[in-house]
Design brief:
This protein is an alpha/beta fold. It is built from nine helices and seven strands. It has a seven-stranded parallel β-sheet with strand order 3-2-1-4-5-6-7, with helices on both faces.
């Protein structure tokens, strides 16, 4: 544990999607362990609150991952403020609850622009810095994309996250000197307040009422929630291994209710 602490303490880390939810939780935890962290997201006011809680000279930088110029400017600002980039965490992800036949072009594009294209734009912008540091890039995905049966109603989200798997593989194939990892996350609501996930905030409640019984019947839920600290441990492990070890995919899920009380 002491070795883990010392490694994290020396890292210069960019967390994209850090204004709320898992990104905010992880960014704050890393800063509390001594890492220099740049918090990136669209909502600057939320970021300012996050860095105040994080301390350790964390910096807040507005960034819209769907805007190429915003991405390049934000990454350069982060690299300048941190003195380089050792690790990139792409925690941004949006989901839509809709029957697949009702998804519009705009909705499909919104998911892919944020969950896939934005991830690649950020990686491109950070590439030179990651190559210099022999760093790592970690992309938050979901067990729903590859480990569980398909979740009815979440087509745009699960399809885009499944595409993320191939995108991470493509980056690794062309840039093997950097560690690229897809982190599949199971049921986890994050922390408290603004650190709680907002993934389902925009869901149509009537559709939730239709989809939830199906998800439960098909046992897509574990029945328990994972503590965000478990996710933090996985992130720390990948960062500690660095680019010297190839960790293409890592999954962290809560134990099922049956496993916990067997």
């Amino acid at each position: 544990m002491w070795h883990l602490w010392r490694v994290i303490e020396s890292k210069k880390i960019v967390v994209v999607g850090a204004s709320s939810g898992l990104g905010r939780s992880i960014g704050i935890a890393l800063a509390h362990k001594g890492a220099k962290v740049a918090f990136l997201a669209r909502r600057k006011d939320r970021l300012d609150n996050a860095v105040a809680e994080a301390g350790n000279d964390a910096i807040a930088i507005a960034c819209d991952v769907t805007d190429e110029s915003s991405v390049s400017g934000a990454i350069e600002q982060a690299a300048a403020g941190l003195g380089g980039i050792d690790a990139l965490l792409y925690t941004t992800g949006i989901g839509l609850l809709s029957k697949i036949e009702n998804l519009t072009v705009a909705q499909w594009r919104s998911c892919f622009d944020t969950n896939i294209i934005g991830a690649s734009l950020v990686t491109s912008a950070a590439l030179a810095h990651l190559r210099e540091s022999k760093g790592v890039a970690i992309y938050f995905s979901s067990v729903s994309a590859s480990l569980t049966p398909t979740w009815p109603g979440l087509a745009a989200y699960t399809v885009s996250k499944a595409a993320l798997e191939k995108m991470v593989e493509a980056w690794n194939a062309e840039h093997g000197d950097i560690g690229f990892t897809r982190l599949n996350v199971g049921d986890c609501v994050g922390g408290e307040g603004d650190s709680r996930t907002e993934f389902a905030n925009g869901f149509d409640r009537s559709l939730v009422g239709t989809a939830f019984p199906i998800w439960t019947q098909r046992k897509l839920f574990a029945g328990t929630m994972m503590e965000v600290q478990e996710l933090m441990t996985a992130v720390e492990t990948v960062m500690t291994l660095g680019a010297s070890a190839h960790v293409p995919v890592l999954a962290v899920t809560p134990r099922t209710h049956e496993q916990l009380f067997a």
